[in-house]
Known about the structure:
By secondary structure, this protein is α/β, with parallel strands linked by helices. It has one domain (7-170): HAD superfamily/HAD-like (Rossmann fold, 3-Layer(aba) Sandwich). It has 4 helices and 8 strands, in the order E-E-E-H-E-H-E-H-E-H-E-E. Helix 2 (70-84) links the parallel strand 4 and strand 5 (88-92). The mean pLDDT is 96.
Amino acid sequence: MVRINRAIFFDRDGVLIKAPVVKGKPKSIQNIKQLKFCPGINKICEYYKKNYYLIMVTNQPDYERKQNTKKNIIEINNFIKKKLNLDAVYVCYSDNNNHKDRKPNPGMIFEAKKKYKIYLNKSYFVGDRWRDIGAGNKAKCVTIFIDKKYDEKLSYKPTHKIDRLNKIFSIIKD
Length: 174
């Protein structure tokens, strides 16, 4: 039997870890002391690990905006990767919306596809913002939008819309 490489791509802030909400929008945490995992994410990652690559895909423009250090961001990401047993972490530090890796552009997903030989049409992208859904849609992944009622327009239509992370089990069946 030929193994089909599939992945679940996760956004970081608001999906894997809790994100402070400021003026109706989620913000990135500044250091590891602020890190709190979203309820149920450990169980989700454990459950899907045997059949999927688990990959974090995150925009972290606070570095380019000089609001955080690369050292802090890397420390946070490495901790998340280790605790959730993720296969890979892709980060875009750019604040330029035209950058190929900055979501909603799918550059980071395409890098993962190449490295892990992933079938994107058999993969999922789980996000809580329009940029996540845009990147997932452009990469032809099944998109799952977690509606956190942020004060922003959902510019792309997700394949699925849920209000709690644990509802992912009713969508991804294996």
